[in-house]
Design brief:
The complex is a heterotrimer. Chain B is mainly α. Chain B has 14 helices and no strands. In chain B, helix 5 packs across helix 11 and helix 7 crosses helix 11. The longest helix of chain B is centred in the first third of the chain and has 36 residues. By secondary structure, chain C is of the alpha/beta class. Chain C contains twelve helices and 13 strands. Classes of the chains: A mainly alpha, B mainly alpha, C alpha/beta. Chains in contact: A-B, B-C. The interface between A and B is large, with 47 and 54 residues.
């Protein structure tokens, strides 16, 4: 997708008019603000324990109540935005970069393609979440392992999408012309195949962002997510789980935050897909 | 047609082989000495040595890989360290739980997801469409374990309608089995329903815009038959292709949901193995998962050939 | 006139666009007598197909409206029929064939399924009888080896064969009116002629009335008895085909005729009409053809000319001129 300024303007205007994109953008913008301004929004330290205040239900002083250590759930959810969004963003970026690289490479070099695509098929032979559980467990319960594991889990899907798009581009005449003119493989990949796959890649990365937020929560719940005390939405829920019956608020609110963030990214992705790539219908 | 099936089966072989290599390498991924990682840092040197020889970690890598394949070729998927039982028998023991859950969930997902998608497409751009699509989007946006816990609080703790956890084999009665599984099955289905409804809707929209739908109407076919006879089968073609994805999501989701509802299924087994660093168990279970999944995808492609006459003869 | 099979009065068709309703067909009237062949000709976007689809109400109801007009078929107003009454007309009394035979047949149903459907629906035939009849129909539209073909799926047939199947479906219930919307546009030239021959033959043997829609003046000349020329959603001229070819009144008709390749004249370059059809979303003052018209008058740009009598049995939307029109360069076919 090589765009001149006018095309870019038209695309942006189309996006700005797209209803689900607008809603998604609004939700994501609010969450990003919450992450950035967390110290200003949260009234309490998200980590320091104050046993005196434990298990307070939602009230004016603690809008989301307090947990078993007397920590303000609202402050923890606000701070948790940072880690959860970071995991989503980093996973989307890493799987996007590596997926694009592998996808373009395998569209350009057919011999490499056969092997790589079988490896991708093999990686996709286990559900992404299972692959991520296995990898995080092996790498240890750190934020970085979660990001690496989720990226590896989503790279095959991204690579497939980029490869598909690049294969179509490869058959176009101007690529043929470039090849005849003696352009190197690298040049064709970077100047032609990659830019033309940008649309589907962007859409896919948005969805990966959404999945990564959900997956982080699932990993935390299973005990292999980023370890406490630094709050992520996932580990707040998993810490609140044992008290879910008497103190439902501990896990209710971070769950809402996850749903909202995922919803926002999905809406954003739907909008991008409608505008950038109307043919792409199947996600994951 | 038979040639297509055989070709598809042959295609699956390299995938299975590569997958086996990847699973084998999982052990090499462990930081430091795998034997120490498995035994735990507080283990005695003797215990570590025992594990090392037991798993053959003292031999060269290539030799390990070859014996790995040799064992797999003989149907030996390893032996669990914590269960004192072979992986295959552990999986077989838990298979009914996971299959029951997946089956029930699929029985909810397919009719619900497809009919919601068809409805939304038929009444596109109406309030019904918006409502269905927002619901579908919520379905794919909410963490299933969180929904599961909320559902237990509501239906089991507060209302007392359903058991909060545990599995009852179907041999002890249909209703106990059903009531134990319906809650996790619905929770698990929600995500898939959302996914399937979105896919079905867009497939249906594509089909409804096709010329042959107009032909059907011009023939005097009523709306019901236009949708069910002319549009629906064509909609199924793209929908069948995502069945593999649905099953994958279902299996992945069941790992989490089994944990919430304390269902002793394969998902729980694998998590148990991971948390106990029982790597032979994890590897064996993953292999069985992966192999079955590759086979499911082959089956999906065969069904696809049956649904679409253009592929059947191609 | 009581022998009018179809009478369209002042039909206007509008579609919902992003910014309000867009008029695709504007105040169109036409009549068709029993057994007659009417040609509707115009460029794409002229509203000819929209008009045809309106007869069977095949537009998406939610995004289409008809602010004015009636479509009287055998005395019934098609626009006022209930869904059930409409279905009884579709496929039984009025049948339709479409431009693209590749996409007009359902890919997952056999030829037999698709022909039988109409028969079972309207004539209540059972499975065996309708299948038998389907084979006969395929033989009627001259598909070789019909007994075998009937059980095949559409993708096994060529474009010309598929259009024959479409025709077989259309004539299955012996309709009184057949609407053929660009039936040969998607086909090779040699196949085109065969399909037109088949249609002509079936028309006379079954005694159908036919509305043939085409952008191709050559096809119209060969097939139709009377012609309606449409431009930008309006009728600009209507005349018996011979008169129209002998002496077109509207400059647009003249332009269309000039664009037909002639075998007896050596031309290096075919004349084309400069400019393009106006965007229906944009309002135009005066004659819609004004911006492209080589002989446009000042008054035409202010007020659109009305459809006025322009000779025996003919009308044109072009003002009578003081100086006689240039003698036509085109001979009748």
């Amino acid at each position: 997708m090589q765009l001149n300024p006018r095309q870019r303007y038209r695309l942006l205007r189309k996006l700005a008019r797209h209803r689900s994109f607008r809603i998604g953008f609004f939700i994501v913008a609010i969450l990003v603000l919450a992450a950035v301004l967390a110290p200003l929004i949260a009234q309490y330290d998200p980590i320091a324990m104050r046993i005196r205040f434990r298990f307070r239900p939602p009230q004016a002083a603690f809008p989301f109540g307090t947990d078993q250590f007397g920590r303000d759930v609202f402050s923890r959810v606000v701070y948790g935005t940072r880690l959860s969004l970071w995991i989503g963003l980093a996973t989307a970026l890493a799987s996007g970069v590596f997926g694009a690289f592998l996808g373009v490479l395998s569209a350009q070099y057919r011999r490499f393609d056969a092997l790589l695509m079988r490896v991708m098929d093999a990686l996709m032979a286990v559900p992404a979440i299972l692959l991520a559980i296995g990898l995080t467990a092996a790498l240890g319960p750190h934020t970085s392992s979660v990001i690496i594991a989720l990226s590896v889990a989503y790279i095959p899907r991204t690579a497939r999408i980029v490869r598909g798009s690049a294969l179509v581009t490869r058959e176009l005449e101007f690529i043929e012309a470039a090849r005849v003119a003696g352009a190197s493989g690298l040049r064709i990949m970077l100047k032609h195949l990659l830019p033309n796959a940008m649309g589907p890649l962007l859409v896919q990365s948005t969805f990966v962002f959404a999945y990564a937020i959900l997956a982080e929560a699932a990993l935390s719940f299973l005990g292999v997510g980023p370890s406490p005390p630094t709050p992520s939405w996932g580990n707040i829920i998993s810490e609140g789980r044992d008290h879910s019956v008497q103190a439902w608020w501990i896990m209710l609110f971070p769950g809402i935050a996850i749903s909202l963030a995922t919803l926002g990214m999905n809406l954003l992705g739907d909008g991008l897909r409608d505008v950038l790539d109307p043919r792409l219908k199947v996600e994951t | 047609m038979w040639r297509g099936v055989i070709y598809r089966l042959l295609q699956a072989i390299p995938v299975v082989v590569i997958f086996a290599v990847l699973v084998f390498m999982l052990l090499q991924l462990l930081p430091g000495d795998p034997a120490v990682a498995i035994a735990g840092s507080e283990a005695t040197p003797e215990a570590i040595d025992r594990i090392r020889t037991q798993l053959g970690l003292d031999r060269p890598l290539l030799e390990q890989l070859l014996s790995w394949f040799n064992r797999l070729a003989h149907g030996d998927f390893g032996k669990s360290l914590i269960l004192n039982q072979s992986v295959v028998s552990a999986v077989v023991e838990r298979l009914p739980v996971t299959l029951s859950l997946a089956f029930l969930s699929l029985m909810i997902t397919l009719p619900a997801g497809i009919s919601l998608g068809v409805l939304a497409a038929y009444w596109r751009n109406t309030w019904l469409d918006s409502f269905v699509m927002v619901t579908a989007l919520l379905g794919v946006s909410m963490p299933s374990f969180w929904l599961g816990i909320l559902s237990v609080i509501l239906f089991s703790v507060t209302l007392g309608w359903l058991p909060p956890a545990g599995y009852v084999p179907i041999t002890q009665g249909l209703w106990p089995w059903f009531s134990a599984l319906i809650q996790p099955a619905v929770v698990l289905a929600l995500f898939q329903i959302g996914f399937l409804a979105r896919i079905t809707r867009s497939a249906m929209l594509d089909v409804l815009d096709q010329d042959f739908i107009r032909t059907a109407r011009a023939k005097g076919v009523d709306e019901w038959h236009t949708i069910t006879k002319h549009a629906f089968r064509n909609t199924l073609i793209p929908v069948v292709t995502v069945t593999g994805i649905i099953i994958s999501l279902l299996i992945g989701g069941s790992v989490v949901v089994e944990q919430v509802f304390a269902l002793p299924g394969i998902g729980r087994l694998i998590v148990q193995g991971i948390l106990a660093r029982d790597y032979p168990l994890v590897q064996g279970t993953m292999l069985i998962f992966g192999f079955s999944f590759v086979m499911i995808n082959v089956l999906v492609d065969i069904v696809y050939m049956l649904v679409d006459p253009r592929v059947r003869f191609g | 006139m009581s022998d009018d099979l179809l009478k369209i009065d002042n039909l206007t068709v509008q579609f919902r666009g992003d910014a309000g309703w867009i008029t695709a067909v504007d105040d169109v009237s036409l009549t068709l007598r029993e057994g007659e062949t009417l040609g509707i000709v115009g460029e794409s976007g002229s509203g000819k197909s929209v008009t045809a689809l309106s007869i069977l109400r095949l537009h998406t109801a939610a995004t289409t409206r008809h602010p004015t007009g009636r479509i009287l078929y055998a005395g019934k107003d098609m626009l006022a029929l209930t869904a059930r009454q409409l279905r009884a007309v579709r496929g039984r009394e009025i049948a339709m064939i479409f431009q693209d035979p590749m996409s007009s047949l359902n890919p997952v149903l056999t030829i037999s399924d698709q022909i039988s459907e109409t028969l079972r629906l309207h004539q209540g035939l059972d499975a065996a009888a309708s299948r038998q009849r389907a084979v006969e129909l395929l033989e009627l539209v001259r598909i070789p080896d019909a007994k075998r073909r009937v059980d095949e799926y559409p993708h096994r047939l060529s474009g010309g064969m598929r259009q024959r199947v479409m025709i077989a479906i259309a004539i299955a219930c012996r309709p009184r009116l057949l609407i053929a919307d660009e039936p040969t546009t998607a086909l090779d030239v040699t196949i085109q002629a065969q399909i037109l021959d088949l249609l002509r033959e079936l028309q006379s043997s079954l005694g159908m009335s036919v509305i043939l829609i085409s952008h191709d003046m050559g096809v119209i000349a060969e097939f139709a008895r009377r012609v309606v020329v449409m431009y930008a959603g309006r009728v600009v001229e209507t005349a018996p085909v011979k008169d129209l070819f002998r002496q077109p009144v509207h400059p647009y008709t003249e332009g269309l005729l000039a664009a037909i390749p002639k075998l007896d004249v050596d031309v290096t370059r075919l004349p084309t009409i400069r400019g393009s059809i106006p965007d229906p979303a944009q309002a135009i003052q005066g004659c819609r053809y004004g911006p492209r018209c080589p002989v446009v008058l000042k008054q035409c740009l202010v007020e659109a000319p009305a459809l006025l009598p322009a000779g025996p049995a003919r009308f044109a939307r072009c003002p009578p001129r003081v100086t006689p029109r240039v003698a036509p360069r085109v001979g009748a076919p």
